[in-house]
Amino acid sequence: MGKHFDNEYKMQIAKFIVEDGKKAAQLARELDIPEGTVRN
Length: 40
Hints:
By secondary structure, the protein is mainly alpha-helical. The protein contains 3 helices and no strands.
C-alpha cells in the first residue's frame, strides 16, 4: 500500500491551498507527492 498521511499533515496541505492560494499541482511538485494525494 501507499503512504498514509496523518490529519495534521492533511490540514497543513489544506492551509497551503486555501490561505496561500497554491494550486494542488504546484504544491504536489513542491512536496514531491502525487497530485491525487493533495486533492484527496
